Amino acid sequence: MQKVQETAEKIRTMEIRGAGRIAKAAAEAVRDYATGLDVASMEEFSARIREVSNFLISTRPTAVSLPNAVKLSSKYSSANVEEARQEIIENANLFIERADKALEKIGKIGSRRIQDGDVIMTHCNSHAALSIITKAFENGKDISVISTESRPRCQGLLTIRHLNDFGIPTTLIVDSAVRYYMKDVDKVIVGADAIAANGALVNKIGTSQLALAAHEARKSFMVAAETFKFSPSTIVGNPIEIEERAVDEIVDLAVISELSHVQVRNPAFDFTPAEYIDMIVTDIGIIPPAMAYTVIKEHLGWELGEI
Ligand code: RUB
């Protein structure tokens, strides 16, 4: 349990962050917990696995990759402890292997849509979006990237550093400069924390302003998302919860503590409606947002949602 708690703490404090990384870390935690689980009965095994799964899922509420990963990894059908343990180990390993392959496939598929000379705008720090950008560069395309700062946690700096390591030229801008620079942009590429059955995207706060500005300027808006980022429970209309984080991420509390009429809000994600999204690059190909329902139904399975 100590390792599970450590992983949960790293996810909560964002030492492990980004929907894909969170999912892989959770799958590993479930696998390692099941491996070392010493129980007297199958009932106890089931109860402990359920407890750990729920605990991991509760660490961050928005990234649907987290419950999807935990549910896929902790699946077993045997009523025998040793066999059930083995099933969990295999399912978790399969999930981790597929997650790595999915990132590669997204890079390969999405990079074909990048033209030589493209200026790409991105937001936050998405490994899926970066996979497309770096693959295009490795394939010899002469590209450059405008990256937002992504306040308050400034994940844009991680993006800039990653692209710099590849030798890709970048420009760092504040989040509010997105519309000002959109005229210089050919494509916007962002990642996903969740994709709803209606094709709406949930991603880092501010993503919807990139989408609006791209729509206004008639620039292409591309989302990079593994199929495990699609949300099964949205099929029956369950909303995706937007995480609201501590306000001291935004402002020094001492600065506002003596003010009595001020409230500070810190939502970590926002919604981008499907009509502002041109395509979603997934590990099974490029789809229009209207196909999100099909991805959930045919590639994730209904049993993942609380349906
Ligand atoms: C990260 C974020 C990323 C998505 C996709 O938010 O919004 O765009 O998680 O990332 P946070 P990836 O920093 O709050 O976790 O493509 O790496 O899964």
From TrEMBL:
Active site: 124, 193
Pfam families in alphabetical order: IF-2B
Keywords: Carbohydrate metabolism, Initiation factor, Isomerase, Protein biosynthesis
A GO molecular-function descriptor: S-methyl-5-thioribose-1-phosphate isomerase activity
InterPro entries xref list: IF-2B-related, IF_2B-like_C, Initiation_fac_2B_a/b/d, M1Pi_N, NagB/RpiA_transferase-like, R15Pi
Superkingdom of the organism of origin: Archaea
GO BP of this protein: L-methionine salvage from methylthioadenosine; pentose catabolic process
Residues the record lists as binding substrate: 17-20, 60, 203-204, 229
EC number assigned by the record: 5.3.1.29
Swiss-Prot/TrEMBL catalytic activity: alpha-D-ribose 1,5-bisphosphate = D-ribulose 1,5-bisphosphate
Similarity field: Belongs to the eIF-2B alpha/beta/delta subunits family. R15P isomerase subfamily.
UniProt function note: Catalyzes the isomerization of ribose 1,5-bisphosphate (R15P) to ribulose 1,5-bisphosphate (RuBP), the CO(2) acceptor and substrate for RubisCO. Functions in an archaeal AMP degradation pathway, together with AMP phosphorylase and RubisCO.
Note: Reaction proceeds via a cis-phosphoenolate intermediate.
Protein name, per record: Ribose 1,5-bisphosphate isomerase
Organism of provenance: Methanosarcina spelaei
